[in-house]
Design a protein that fits this description.
By secondary structure, this protein is an alpha+beta fold. It contains 5 helices and 17 strands.
Length: about 425
């Protein structure tokens, strides 16, 4: 049984609804007043659950997380649609929302599907909506069958029940191919008034030489860590099921903590000192000595030669509806692949709303415990439209401990 992906025609950053919607992949939020901390949500299960006979309503529950608030759990006894009250949550103009659907199978919760999206609006407007364009099913034991498929067949879908690795092939760990990035100075960010405020002010940064992996971490790379006991399995998105070269695709869906586990494992195994790049190092390496809007120029018309993004008929078709094998596109002038597109990439920096006070030496900009609950992601991803791949584009993201979006990955850096 294959789960169907639902893809929005617009990126999350472009979707704003003003009505309360509770059908299909949409979930509406209604706030009682501007000062209310209780929000009424009509929860509707994703299509993958509503169209399967695996469901035992008495064993279904949904875990809802709004921003960095503790998860709230709601059980379902007769239907997969009900009104629930999210308490202790003050909505603002920009909210991350995650809903994970579980079924209790042989006494153990098994993840069946996950919905993630962004709430747009202001609680003072009383109603707003969220678009959830993703509906994918977990594959906890990474055997190529979704958890729903195995539950239907009465088979245990948990990692402890399977010895298969995620790539389906035996691999040997080798040091990643690293590109030597020369020392230099550049203007980071932009003063363009049309750009988001978090991309400024433009400031000069002078960096020491460092090394950056020529490609993103792949599913094969992760499988080695899992098989060696250093990492936990990551749910494989359904578009990779039965794809022969899936192990070479850019890894996605890893949490911040899982990334730290991978760094610990590879550094211990190879006696190395790999790390995440700083945000300044990432932009410097992405620019590769250029000063244009994109590293290949000021126009995005030939973007498909260089990156895997959202296929837009008005621009170009890159040949991949979702992720792609790493190094499928032309590199930038430094010889780095997929610095734009494919998986979005975490940097080492903590969240800062702009560059006021940013380090001038290119080191990671850390911060308080509160600031470091969020971080900075760079490089776009395979669902971004090409105009969102400017070299200065940055996204401030919550470092969730228990979930990650399917288009979030990373690459290695070292001194």
């Amino acid at each position: 049984m294959r789960m169907r992906h639902v893809r929005s025609n617009l990126p999350l950053s472009r979707i704003i609804n003003t009505g309360t919607i509770a059908i299909g992949m949409f979930l509406g939020i209604t706030s009682c007043s501007s000062s209310s901390t209780t929000s009424s949500l009509p929860l509707t299960a994703p299509e993958s659950l509503r169209n399967t006979n695996a469901i035992e309503y008495s064993e279904i529950f949904a875990e809802v997380i709004v921003n960095n608030n503790p998860p709230q759990t709601f059980s379902f006894t007769a239907d997969l649609a009900r009104q629930v009250n999210i308490t202790g949550v003050q909505l603002d103009a920009n909210n991350d929302v995650s809903i994970v659907w579980y079924q209790t199978f042989e006494g153990t919760p098994v993840e069946l599907a996950r919905q993630e999206g962004r709430f747009f609006g202001d609680s003072s407007t009383r109603t707003a909506a969220i678009d959830f364009p993703y509906d994918y099913s977990a594959d906890s034991d990474a055997d190529g069958q979704t958890n729903i498929t195995e539950v239907i067949g009465g088979t245990c879908p948990l990692p402890s029940c399977s010895t298969d690795n995620q790539s389906g092939t035996e691999q040997t760990l080798t040091a990643p191919e690293m590109v030597a990035i020369p020392a230099g100075s550049f203007l980071m960010g932009t003063d363009d008034p049309a750009a988001p405020a978090n991309e400024g002010p433009q400031h000069r940064v002078t960096l020491s030489a460092f090394k950056l992996a020529e490609a993103e971490v792949t599913w094969n790379d992760w499988a080695l860590c899992v098989s060696d006991g250093g990492c936990t399995p990551v749910t494989e998105p359904d578009w990779l099921i039965d794809i022969p070269d899936k192990g070479q695709h850019a890894l996605g869906g890893v949490t911040w903590d899982q990334i730290q586990d991978y760094l610990d494992w590879i550094n211990t195994t190879l006696s190395a000192n790999y790390r995440l790049p700083s945000e300044a190092e990432f932009e410097y390496a992405l620019r590769a000595g250029t000063t244009t809007t994109f590293f290949f120029g000021d126009e995005d018309t030939n973007f498909c030669d260089f990156a895997n993004g959202y296929n837009d008929d008005t621009t170009c078709q890159d040949g991949y509806p979702r992720s792609s094998p790493v190094k499928s596109f032309s590199p930038n002038p430094f010889g780095l692949y997929d610095m734009n597109g494919n998986a979005g990439e975490w940097t080492a920096d903590c969240k800062h709303d702009n560059y006021i006070g940013a380090p001038a030496n290119g080191e990671a900009w850390l911060g308080s415990e509160t600031e470091c609950k969020e971080g900075v992601m760079r490089g776009g991803n395979h669902i971004f439209i090409y105009s969102d791949f400017r070299v200065t584009d940055r996204r401030l993201k919550t470092r969730h401990r228990d979930f990650a979006e399917v288009h979030e990955g990373f690459r290695l850096a070292s001194d």
